[in-house]
Amino acid sequence: MSLKDVIIKERLPRHIAVIMDGNGRWAKKQGNARIFGHKNAMKAVRDVCEACAELGVDYLTLYAFSTENWNRPKMEVMGLMDLLVSAINTETDTLIKNNIRLNAIGRLTDLPEKVLVNLKDAIDRTKDNTGLTLTLALSYSSKVELVEAVQSVARDIEAGKISADSIDASVISDHLYTRGMPDPDLLIRTSGEFRISNFMLWQLAYSELYFTPILWPDFDKEELYKAIVDYQQRERRFGMTSEQIG
Ligand code: FPP
Description:
alpha/beta; 8 helices; binds farnesyl diphosphate
């Protein structure tokens, strides 16, 4: 039996965010170079996208590369950038076929030209799709995102567009890279690490967190179903009492 049959369709998380961790350890366990782990990560990426699209999840956000990841050995960074280019090129037709809209958040201008050009092209080619929105977090740092949001709000004040007193949570949300997207309902992190690692600090305020020891290249559809079933067994109170949400 698949756990897919246990999922309550009416209570799906609308937005799932994933910290895909453990590629390096997965490769090392087999005596291979780290990049081998990243290459094998693509099957898990495909599986999770397909499962989300099939289930009817609206948003899937994948933490693919952090600003801190630029400090990794040059060979690994170059390998990851090449992998991104080839993934975008080989998968865009599949995205179109599956009505998936590609999106990206982060300091995209940090990316090498070839990644940026291919990424923009794929985003443009999928922009009219109406199914799952797949967002890649690339050169992403939540603290940088918040700093840029504050700068942007400050500029709006300087320009007389808004007053300091009118700033509320929705103003901040509207200045983040994720503007227009609902906050994640469920955050999944693989590889047994219990950290947020500078990922969507504002947006994860009320998300349910799911940690699994599975290394990312071993994550598959069934593992995703397991996370969703776990999520559906939780009571989301948003600071209220059980009786209030009854
Ligand atoms: C974490 O494992 C993984 C990454 C930093 C990179 C993940 C990116 C990809 C698989 C490319 C994704 C491409 C698309 C198109 C979504 P790690 O290297 O930190 O593993 P470790 O903790 O075991 O060292």
